[in-house]
Amino acid sequence: MKVEGVVLISIGIFMAMVSVGYWFWSGEPSGTAMLIGSVLLGLLPGGYYYWWAKHMRPRPEDRPDATMKEGAGVIGSFPHGSMWPLVFGAGAFLTGLALAFGWWFLPPGAGLIVVATLGVTMQSRRGGTI
Amino acid sequence: MTLIEEKAAAPARVQSRPEPVHHAEPSGLVKWLTSTDHKVIGKSYMFTSLALMIIGGAMALLIRAQLASPHSSLLSFQQYNELFTMHGSIMIYLFVGPFAFGGLANYVVPLQIGAPDMAFPRLNALSYWLYLGGSIIMLLGFFTASGAADFGWVAYAPLSSAVNSPGAGPDAWIAALILTGFSAIFTGVNLVTTIFYLRAPGMTMFRMPIFVWNMLVTAILILIAFPVLTSALVMLYADRHFGMDIFSVKGGGVPVLWQNLFWFWGHPEVYILALPFFGVITEIIPVFSKKPIFGYKGMVFATLAIAALSTGVWGHHMFTTGVVLLPFFSLLSLLIAVPTGIKFFNWIATMWRGQITFTTPMLCAIGFLITFLIGGLTGMFLASPPVDFQMHDTYFVVAHFHSVIFALVIAAIGALYFWWPKMFGWYLNDRIGKVQFWLLFVGVNATVIPWYILGLHGMPRRVAVYSTGMGWHALNIAATVGADITGVSFLVFLLNVYLSWDKKVPAPNNPWDGTTLEWFTSSPPPTHNFTRIPPIRSERPVWDYNHPNAVAIPAHTNENNDKHASPPTGADDDGGD
User: Fold this and answer.
1) Candidates B140, B176, B201; nearest CB to A70
2) Count of domains for chain B
3) CA distance A128 to chain B (A)
4) What pLDDT digit, counting tens, does each position of B222-252 carry?
């Protein structure tokens, strides 16, 4: 975890230097705001990873001498298939059409998004493709 | 010899749930529609984006046909504006980026780090459907009464306001980019999480293939840049429909704010497009030079430096607005040449005294180096404000960024030839591939080099007609011929796919003596990718496994060891799976 944290923190520190330079040199607010956003994007997750790197033993993928056996065990659930991304995507597609072509696309679009959100949550509990 | 450790029941790393028995396993179309396998999604991304590239390329050929004679009446001015807008939008938003971070990265990254899938398989599928939906909406703009968006792919305020660009076409353009923006953000989250959490044991960060490093940095750049674009588009939509006046002077807004927001996305976007293909090149060159990559850590550092610098250079697109800090943006823009130069020297040093085989992927890698060098160096000119004031909005700028993007397209073709055997289990014909490469390489440079000269002679971009007295006619004909040759090269590609599919030459697991993990599993890989994984003791685990008697090259200290890098001979060379 340590390298991951250091990479993100270094990006944050570099962006902090750029932000300070930019603000005092140009005084332009919109660019400074966006630069500060990228500082936080580096520091917040980077700090999280670094904190955990200090507080846990290195994972097998962090150790150069780890063997495959040490990685045995369940690392997560990877469903083969799910119809809900398609349903959610169809809902988002209709919502996009609503933005461009008329608000009557919005109710079916929003409906599909709600159904898909419920469906994907239920699927996480139950498994299977529906 | 127990070099290989069976990955203790590899599928056990994947939680298997009891499937409902009354549900038959889906097949055919339903299987594709519901698949969350990163390999299926990656291939869908690649083919969708290639189809869109052919649509966008056809638009480019129409534009070139219009410009082949000074006062052509092939297209009306309105049609011409729509075509160059949609050509740029399709190529930038829907082809190069999604092909790289949606297609290649999706397919290759989990394989290269020994992961069973992306970290969030269903989110990954959602990314694809959002991308497909957004692409369809953008193309639907052509079927509206007012036509597709016609304000250029950058949609500058106030041209993009409801008064200046009324109608549903621009709204479709905005809606499409909001959807594809979310798609890119989700893919970025997925890539970062996959690379941080799903590496195989022993695959430390500094043993990851450079392609994976580049995709990690690309994903971080996506997370920095795309939220800004997506929110700027929401603001633009609110401006157009709810009178928010964020970008219009009449309500107290600031039009140049749009340019600030757009280019804060737009310049990192250049590297979101480029870094994946830098990674592709870094995979191809060592394999076909039979040498480890020169300067692994230097490559990683250069990638990070390019990414960090690229976030602070957006103003160089806005030099002529008169409201940006010229020295700041000029300095940071010029600094990007340093890490990019490091990469170039590392690529060349990797080839130096290697045993190069000139297969199609390797030719594409070299074609990329040349074309990208032209694009990169002319970018250095434009980073200098006095030069940019002269060149801004001329064909010199058009030529510069087409050099860059065409270089990436050449690399993309190389990537397809390189990973095609892995993706499908059969080769693309190498001989036809070489024909395609030379047509593509000659075609793109024959298109672009006349543009540089036209730009120096002052021809402005985005004009449908030009005066006969300017002496621009011959160069425009040359560019049109070049574009047509480029078009033919893609017909050759389609022909190659058909012919290679018709008479399949089956590919082994490791057709190129590749060194990274994707070459260890079968071609095409099984569900959840690996049944076993070799021990990972360097950044080249498969090479270590296939050549156990070769002189060991200590990881990361190979700079001074080029005598060890000579190709293995005799008994130790019987590895190849």
Assistant:
1) B201
2) 1
3) 5
4) 999 999 999 999 999 999 999 899 999 888 8
